[in-house]
Amino acid sequence: MTQPTDIRRDIALRLAASGVPVLPLRARKGPFGNCRACARNACGGRPNMKHAGACACARPCHAWAAATTDPTVLRSPEWAQAWREAAAVAYHPGGAGLTVVDLDDAAAVAWARETLPATRTVESTRGEHWIYHGVMPSSNAVRSGVDIKSCMAYARWLGPGTGTMTALPEVVRALVVKEPMVRPAPQVLTVPGRGGECPHRTLTYLERGIAMAEQQITEARSAIHATVYRTFLAVLSTHGRCGCLTDAHIVRLFTAAQTKGESARHCTDAWTNARTRLGL
Length: 280
Fold this sequence. Notes:
This protein is an alpha+beta fold.
C-alpha cells in the first residue's frame, strides 16, 4: 500500500513534470526552515535565484525559493526527510506563470464572484483559490480575506480545480497598488519613438538595462530602499511609456530588491511612487 509520504512526493513529481515548481510544507502550512548553514541567510542568498551569492543548498531551504521542477532534487536524500515530515505539497505560482487569488472566507468568495472574471477555482479549507494565467507581485491582505500569491510566494496544492483558466485581469493587478506615501508634482516626459514605435525595443538594449538595474540593486551596501526607488525610477523613465517592460522584467527587479531585504509591500510602494513621480 502506498504511504502518504510517497503520495505527496508523487504529486510533486507530476506537478514538476508539467512545469510547476513544487516544495514540501510542514503541518500548519509552513515551509521548512533553513538548515543550519543557511540560517538567517548566512549563505548569502536563496536557491534558484540568478543573482550573485545565490545559495546552492541541496536541502528544501528558503521557503518559496526552494520550489523546483527537478525530479532529481525531489527524489534526493536531502529532501527525503522533508517528505517524511511533510503535511502537504505547495507550489510557486509565479514560477509556473500563475497568480492565485486566495479567498479565505465566504465573504471573500462572494466578493470575487461579483467582481472578478471567472477562471479556474479550487476549494480550500475555508474558501477558494482562483487561479489566473500571468504573474504579478504577491501581497497579503489586499482586502479582507484576500491574499495574492504569485511571485516570491507559495500556495498549497489543493487539486486541479474546475473551470477554464483565464488571463490575469487588471482588476486583480490593481489590488496590490496602494496609495503612494508621497505625491510630488508629475514630471512631463517626451514619449520616445516615432510613430508609436519604441527605439528601445531591442533585446540587447532592454536586456542590458534590466541587467544593470539588477546589478545596481544587488551591489548596494547601504540605503537599500532609496537605491531600489531610484533604480525603479530610472527604468520607468526610459521604458515606462513605450510598452517595453513586461511582467517578467518587473519580477526580475522586484526579485533583486527582495534579495536585498526589501519586502513585497516596499517594492510595490517604490514602484507606485516612481510611476506617480513620472506621471505614468
